[in-house]
Design goal:
This protein is an alpha/beta fold. It has a single domain, classed as Alanine racemase (TIM Barrel). 40% of the residues lie in helices and 18% in strands. It has 9 helices and 8 strands. Strand 1, helix 2 and strand 2 form a beta-alpha-beta unit. Helix 6 crosses helix 7. The longest helix has 19 residues. The chain binds pyridoxal-5'-phosphate (PLP). It holds the Pfam family Ala_racemase_N. This is Pyridoxal phosphate homeostasis protein.
Length: 223
């Protein structure tokens, strides 16, 4: 088995373990392999191993990869901070946008023709530079998404803060999701959990994991 297949299998086993411990069906959990900075050859290899959902965080890179790999039938998840002026272009190839975090971006994503799945990203830190809406502005942004044509609200997305235990942070997101479901009963999905904290995320109800290096190995440059 290749090293990539090896890592993919061990993460899949870790996901099944965590789901079992949480009393959850692993079939209800989507694993998005975050392939930022990785070459298209690696994404082809992942597709051959059965991966269907991939994540990218920079528009230009994502757009080029989605165009080059159009034959693979992959679902592209946009997980990075998104400039409003790039919003329409991202809509063109993304199945889901996980980083909806402000009203101006919602306006830029508006469409009367097509619909895209989206997640509202919540900021769990005090640093606005980390992306995500502040928890006290969550309902206002959710209402804006709900009244905007072309956006299908699936749920919430969050990144656990650095240097803190992840599980209480994910429990907090789960509680915020209950607030959101009062406005949008269908918006039950939770995009949370990365290479180092996906087990905690599953224990707190994650439905969409965004896992990079634990599967791909180290990224070639930065990021
Ligand atoms: C890079 C990235 C991930 C994956 O991170 P790993 O630690 O490599 O698993 C997940 N979510 C977002 C938003 C990212 O930018």
């Amino acid at each position: 088995m290749s090293a990539l297949a090896d890592r993919l299998h061990s993460v899949r086993a870790g996901i099944e373990d965590a789901a079992r411990d949480a009393g959850r069906d692993p079939g209800g959990i989507t694993t998005i392999v975050v392939t930022k900075f990785q070459p298209v050859s690696l994404i082809r290899e992942l597709a051959a191993l059965g991966v269907r959902d991939v994540g990218e965080n920079r528009h230009q890179e994502a757009q080029a990869k989605a165009a080059e790999l159009g034959d693979l039938g992959l679902r592209w998840h946009f997980v990075g901070q998104l400039q409003s002026k790039k919003a329409r272009q991202v809509r063109a190839y993304a199945s889901a946008i996980h980083s909806v975090d402000r009203e101006s971006l919602v306006d830029a994503l508006r469409s009367e023709e097509a619909s895209v799945d989206c997640f509202v990203q919540v900021n769990l830190t005090d640093d606005p530079g980390r992306g995500g809406v502040a928890p006290d502005a969550l309902e206002t942004l959710v209402e804006k998404v709900l009244e905007t044509p072309g956006l299908e609200l699936r749920g919430l997305m969050a990144v656990a803060p650095l240097g803190e235990p992840a599980r209480p942070a994910f429990a907090n997101v789960r509680a915020m999701s209950e607030r959101v479901q009062r406005l949008a009963p269908e918006a039950t999905s939770l995009s949370m959990g990365m290479s180092h904290d996906y087990r905690d995320a599953i224990l707190e109800g994650a439905t969409h994991l965004r896992i990079g290096t634990a599967i791909t190995g180290n990224r070639p440059t930065g990021g």
